[in-house]
User: Which sequence fits this backbone?
């Protein structure tokens, strides 16, 4: 009929051929190649991290110290950002233009497509203003975070602070992602794993403009965030507050421990700073200011600072002498006071007091020559082959008091202090045959010996307990918080402790520590003065009370506070009275006033502290 | 009574059944593509799917009336219908409204009509009319010119509307012409030209060159029917190429591999000319010449493309759907491939597609409707849809072949060619095998004009087919 009829086959073949190619291609794309599935998920799902609120921090009476407040991060997706009113943004947030420009560039470098934080930690009030105008800023959105809120304006050294994780921390622990917060110091750091909680995930479906369209499978695969665990600290925040008032314009550290339990009641590092300063947009500026402050408020004087223990160390020397039986409580030595006493060719000065005196009296009057004599007997003890061996034995005993090592696992920044080793003296004197007189200053707690105020407070605990201490701690163990509290025994017989405690009691009633005395409460204390080559001596006081069944053991360290009795003793007395009685008796009000008003700080530092104080008042 | 039942019996109900199934599938997929929770009723006429149902309803009415019309009407009035349509296409240039950069719409109240869609059946009728005239010889230059003119007028007007994609549809008439006696080599030439243009821009030179050489070798085998010579040729060419590779390795030349292949091919070709001359292999010289022309053309396209302005390059790249940046110009194809590819074997299920639901795929209810099929129904769905469309086109070819009148047959082939072009280009672009030309997928894409136009196109043919026994050729 038509000579081209056969061509229908060619045409059909072409059509069938193309359709077959398409079907093969589709088989490859849909069945064999599963990369499209992944791409589809990347396209349409956005995983929104649910940040848990950090655990709260309470004091021993369950007063809330640290809580959370909402804060906001201004996020951008650089590719979507169009020209915007930089001036307006700067004025709303109160930031500098350079910072905005710098952060913008940083976000662009990170990824033009992914959201990143432009400005973090915007406060609720700034957020309210910004939120209204946000529609004008394409590519910008807000992310809710929780930040810390502090109900006290001090004790930043206890709490520490939080900040964004560093790249190295992310590499070390994969649970962190860029922009997460991590505890940087204090309890925030040591209890990070408890406080942080567990991050959750919300799988969101987004459309082509990255607009959220709902949750994936109605949230069936979402993981809710688990709120961080709360911490109950052992601090008495009222006492803490009072201590800061007393320590105003003074540098130093106070630490108080409940002897029976090892609970830290008080931890004051002065000058401190308001923890709220390291929150919000101003934190960078504030941190710099704190860093540059000549009084180094960022330095925790209770656990990081180590000073010579001074005369407080005489209590340990007396105990060791008794235990080693080189002296008895009745052993008497002569002292010529300021006229200097000669002991084995060494001349030792003291202040004027009765002479000769026995062990109890030596503690009462803090007699230096007495302890030089004891030291001589300790090191020239026939029990040991030579001075080196005697020293080794002595050092072991001293170390059992927690000296020369970290004793509180709650503080990550704790320093060990130092108890000089035999090797150190071998090196120093270039011989193994050194004499007791070479290291004579150790006898009265001077020389190479360094302790932290925490260690002194712990020594007070040991004396209060007459022979043991519980691991000092600031967080009460509870479910999920490891109990690291142990009882540490001291190898000294209990009667010897009673004798030394008697001496300390005498010091508090009629000796060097009279200024601490409180009506109806028997106080046991030992003053100390650490010589300071740079200025006035540091004033030290180690104390516990009451004498029987002690409730509080304390170390007070005042930099440039002169001899112990001048500042450390009255401040400790006031704190103990406050703690044990709840108030200060009327006749001590004048002393309280004087302590609060006196200043041992350089004028420049005073200015900074004043400024900060004003700021806190303003905020309140 | 008898006549009427005869008429009903002569209607090809299988085609109508397939048409109905395809329309229904299309509607369901439009529903899935634009589904939103607020308007979940498939009959909601504020939404595309509701509107599409209206279009389907009116299209059925239209189909019914076409079936009632005397088939002679279409043969007799074909040229007038063509002329009217051309008039409308001119009118739309002046009176139409602009949408998405193309002035190709008439707006009547809330209804928009795209005249270009109706140009297809009108042109198809006109082509059938001209080619079925007594004494029409296709291989005459004047005939080719006349046909070319008939196709070029609507195509040109549509290009003026800035709707190049729709204009390209008219190139599908080459299949009709081939069926009616166009020399095979012209069809081949068309394919080769298009292929070289696209391949040169899409694929690296080495692939294009290999393709040309492969084609030439196959042509050689086809014309010479001598396997021995063919093998020798292949061995010589391969040896030559390997030798050049060896030399490059030995002397550390910096020449790219495709150049080496070209040199090997040239050497083989020049030696070949000697043998061709000696043995008087007339066909082969043409094959060789065609092959070299292809290479020259390919190099030319490459060279010309490099000389183009960036925005012109972008436009061509866009047309071909190639662009390195997946979020830029190539975004559409990339997203479309993700949507289809993520469907898997059995799909994500009805209304469960995330890519199409959240608008990652552009134009998802119109040009990219096939993505919804791919994502929600998986490979099974796409294979069934392609199979059904293929069966429908083959059915029309079958029907066309059984016509007694040339007019009906030619018209039938026109219908099949237009449908095939739409299916091939539309599905091809969604899976990245064809350039992105904005033409709808028949029966599936949302749009009244296109649905009406295809319905008219198909039902005129079915009407002609129902009447086939009363026609004497």
Assistant:
């Amino acid at each position: 009929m038509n000579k081209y009829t056969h061509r229908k086959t060619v045409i059909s073949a072409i059509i069938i051929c193309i359709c077959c190619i398409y079907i093969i291609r589709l088989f490859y794309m849909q069945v064999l190649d599963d990369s499209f599935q992944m791409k589809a998920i990347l396209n349409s799902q956005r995983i929104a991290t649910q940040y848990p609120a950090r655990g709260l921090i309470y004091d021993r009476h369950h007063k809330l110290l640290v809580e959370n407040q909402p804060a906001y991060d201004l996020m951008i997706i650089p590719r979507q950002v169009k020209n915007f009113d930089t001036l307006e943004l700067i004025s709303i947030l109160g930031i500098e233009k350079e910072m905005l420009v710098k952060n913008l560039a940083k976000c662009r470098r990170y990824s033009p497509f992914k959201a990143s934080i432009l400005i973090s930690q915007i406060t609720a009030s700034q957020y309210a203003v910004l939120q209204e105008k946000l529609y004008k800023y394409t590519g910008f959105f807000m992310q809710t975070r929780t930040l810390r809120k502090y109900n006290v304006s001090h004790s930043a050294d206890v709490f520490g602070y939080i900040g964004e994780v560093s790249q190295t921390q992310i590499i070390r622990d994969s649970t962190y992602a860029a922009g997460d917060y991590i505890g940087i110091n204090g309890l925030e750091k040591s209890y990070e794993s408890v406080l942080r909680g567990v991050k959750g995930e919300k799988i969101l479906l987004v459309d082509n403009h990255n607009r959220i369209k709902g949750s994936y499978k109605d949230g069936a695969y979402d993981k809710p965030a688990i709120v961080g665990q709360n911490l109950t600290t052992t601090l008495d925040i009222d006492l803490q507050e009072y201590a800061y008032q007393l320590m105003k314009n003074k540098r130093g550290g106070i630490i108080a421990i409940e002897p029976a339990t090892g609970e830290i009641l008080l931890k004051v590092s002065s000058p401190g700073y308001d923890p709220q300063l390291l929150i919000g947009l101003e934190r960078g500026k504030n941190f710099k200011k704190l860093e540059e402050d000549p009084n180094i408020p960022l330095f925790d004087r209770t656990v990081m600072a180590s000073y010579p223990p001074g005369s407080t160390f005489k209590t340990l020397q007396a105990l060791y002498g008794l235990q080693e039986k080189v002296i008895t409580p009745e052993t008497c030595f002569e002292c010529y006071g300021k006229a200097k006493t000669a002991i084995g060719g060494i001349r030792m000065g003291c202040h004027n007091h009765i002479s000769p005196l026995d062990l109890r009296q030596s503690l009462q009057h803090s007699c230096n020559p007495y302890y030089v004599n004891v030291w001589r007997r300790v090191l020239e003890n026939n029990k040991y082959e030579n001075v080196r061996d005697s020293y080794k034995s002595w050092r072991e005993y001293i170390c059992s008091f927690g000296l020369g090592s970290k004793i509180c696992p709650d503080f990550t920044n704790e320093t060990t202090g130092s108890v000089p080793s035999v090797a150190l003296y071998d090196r120093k004197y270039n011989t193994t045959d050194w004499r007791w007189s070479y290291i004579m200053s150790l006898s009265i707690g001077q020389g190479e010996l360094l302790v932290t105020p925490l260690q002194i407070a712990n020594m007070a605990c040991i004396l209060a307990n007459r022979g043991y201490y519980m691991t000092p701690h600031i967080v009460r163990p509870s479910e999920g918080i490891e109990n690291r509290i142990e009882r540490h025994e001291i190898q000294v017989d209990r009667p010897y402790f009673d004798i030394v405690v008697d001496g300390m009691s005498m010091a508090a009633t009629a000796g060097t520590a009279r200024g601490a005395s409180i009506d109806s409460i028997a106080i046991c204390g030992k003053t100390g003065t650490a010589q300071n080559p740079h200025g006035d001596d540091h004033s030290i006081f180690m104390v516990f009370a009451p004498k029987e069944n002690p409730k509080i053991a304390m170390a007070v360290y005042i930099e440039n506070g002169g001899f112990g009795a001048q500042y450390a003793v009255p401040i400790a007395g006031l704190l103990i009275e406050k703690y044990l009685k709840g108030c200060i008796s009327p006749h001590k009000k004048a002393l309280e006033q004087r302590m609060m008003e006196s200043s041992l700080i350089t004028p420049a530092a005073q200015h900074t502290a004043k400024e900060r104080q004003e700021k806190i008042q303003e905020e309140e | 009574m008898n006549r009427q039942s005869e008429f009903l019996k002569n209607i090809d109900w299988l085609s109508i059944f397939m048409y109905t199934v395809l329309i229904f599938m299309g509607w369901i997929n439009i529903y899935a593509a634009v589904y939103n929770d607020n308007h979940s009723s498939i009959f909601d006429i504020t939404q595309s799917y509701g509107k599409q149902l209206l279009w389907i309803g009116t299209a059925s009415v239209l189909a019914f009336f076409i079936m009632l019309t005397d088939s002679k009407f279409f043969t007799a009035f074909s040229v007038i219908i063509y002329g009217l349509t051309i008039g409308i296409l001119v009118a739309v240039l002046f009176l139409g409204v602009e949408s998405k950069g193309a002035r190709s719409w008439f707006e009547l109240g809330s209804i928009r009509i795209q005249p270009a869609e109706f140009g297809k059946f009108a042109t198809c009728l006109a082509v059938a009319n001209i080619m079925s005239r007594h004494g029409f010889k296709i291989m005459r230059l004047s005939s080719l010119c006349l046909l070319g003119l008939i196709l070029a007028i609507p195509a040109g007007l549509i290009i003026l509307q800035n709707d190049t994609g729709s204009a390209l549809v008219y190139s599908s008439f080459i299949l009709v012409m081939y069926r009616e006696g166009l020399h095979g080599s012209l069809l081949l030439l068309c394919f080769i030209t298009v292929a070289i243009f696209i391949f040169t821009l899409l694929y690296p030179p080495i692939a294009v060159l290999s393709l040309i050489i492969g084609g030439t070798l196959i042509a050689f085998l086809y014309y010479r029917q001598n396997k021995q010579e063919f093998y020798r040729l292949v061995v010589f060419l391969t040896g030559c190429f390997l030798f050049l590779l060896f030399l490059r390795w030995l002397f550390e030349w910096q020449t790219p591999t495709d150049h080496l292949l070209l040199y090997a091919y040239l050497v083989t070709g020049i030696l070949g000319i000697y043998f061709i001359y000696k043995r008087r292999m007339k066909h082969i010289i043409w094959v060789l010449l065609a092959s070299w022309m292809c290479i020259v053309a390919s190099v030319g396209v490459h060279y010309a493309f490099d000389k183009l302005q960036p925005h012109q390059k972008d436009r061509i790249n866009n047309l071909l759907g190639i662009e390195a940046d997946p979020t830029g110009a190539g975004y559409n194809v990339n997203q479309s491939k993700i949507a289809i590819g993520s469907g898997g074997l059995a799909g994500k299920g009805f209304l469960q597609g995330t890519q199409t639901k959240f608008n990652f795929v552009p134009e998802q209810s119109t040009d990219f409707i096939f993505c919804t099929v791919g994502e929600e129904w998986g490979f099974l769905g796409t294979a069934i849809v392609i199979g059904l469309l293929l069966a429908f086109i083959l059915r029309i070819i079958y029907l066309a072949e059984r016509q007694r009148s040339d007019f009906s047959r030619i018209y039938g082939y026109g219908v099949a060619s237009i449908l095939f072009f739409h299916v091939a280009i539309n599905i091809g672009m969604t899976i990245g095998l064809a350039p992105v030309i904005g033409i709808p997928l028949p029966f599936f894409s949302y749009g009244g004009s296109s649905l009406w136009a295809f319905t008219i196109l198909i039902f005129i043919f079915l009407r002609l087919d129902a009447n086939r026994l009363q026609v004497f050729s």
User: Anything to note?
Assistant: Residues 324-329 of chain B have pLDDT under 50 and may be disordered.
